[in-house]
Amino acid sequence: MVKVSAAEVQAGGRAVRVSSPDRIIYEATGRTPEVSKLMVAQYVASVEDGLMRALRDRPTALERWPSGVREGMRLATGPQDSKAEAFYQKRVPKGAPDYLETATVTFPSGRTADEICPTEIAVPVWCAHMGTLTFHPWPVRRDDVDHPDELRIDLDPQPGTSFADAVRVAGVARELLAELGLTAYVKTSGNRGVHVYVRIEPRWEFLDVRHAAIGFGRALERRDEQVTTAWWKEERGERIFVDYNQNCRDRTIASAYSLRPLPGAPVSTPLSWDDLAGIADPRELNLFTVPERLADGGDPWAGIDDEAFSIQPLLDLYEELPGGEMPYPPDHPKMPGEPPRVQPSKKVAGHWDADGNRIED
């Protein structure tokens, strides 16, 4: 078999060059054949309607797996992972085409960066050519990068729980949001979790939206005993964790229609609430099946931009329910009112400074 050095994928009105199109990105599994780099790029083009609804005008970080996905490969999460095979690209890669547009974002550290800001499907297809599998858009639009227009509820199954548990809890979350006057949309994470999104008015800062997620999570765990907002894993038990910190500045979730770096090329797939209840195994939703679902039934999130909601009811919950401020991610600067970042099991008699360091008596 003769190897082809490059191929082209039609993306909107552009032909996007894809190098090394025969490179195997996903190996074959018991349910799916192998997936080449060209097939990844073609998949991205095929889900244009849904993917661009998720990415358009949003600063977007790229999760790049240029050598493909293999058992034992790692995703770099910091400078200590210099030998990892995959990495996050937060700044525009070299060699970007002239039609690629950018947006400037500010990280919690105060540093800024120009990130890719997709405005047409040719951009994500080019990103696929660069080894991108998963797109990580900010919950903002480029005309106002400091005020999120999405509330993201990440329902993360802990050990001892399952995708089915996350689906059930998502239904409870939908009911609670509806009681508060908010319309929710749902998608699979592409793994075991479930993501619930609400389009919100872009008039609150990241801190407020994070507090809204905490308030909602606390109300949800009072309604359902299988839900927890406990930040420390040792306190979560066999429950579904509401990861409120996904609403922090520079914390992102895999976009709708993104591939995930797992065997079988699974996809983070938007669903109707009725369809979600019928999914027994999220691996059914993959590179081979999702384009057909989208073509036949349309994007279940087609109406997500029709109405934006106030998060004031959720902020009221944050103020009313006990608990106060919660820990931030370890790479986030220390925030006012935040409790010490110390695992409960490591707390002993003594005092702790604002960074979680023990001060001897």
UniProtKB/TrEMBL annotation:
Could you tell me which InterPro entries the record lists for this protein? LigD_pol_dom, NHEJ_LigD
| Basic and acidic residues: compositionally biased ranges | 350-361
Domain of life, per lineage? Bacteria
User: Which residues belong to any copy of the DNA ligase D polymerase domain?
Assistant: 37-301
What Pfam families does this protein map onto? LigD_Prim-Pol
What segment(s) does the record annotate as region Disordered?
321-361
Protein name, entry field: DNA ligase D-like protein (Predicted polymerase)
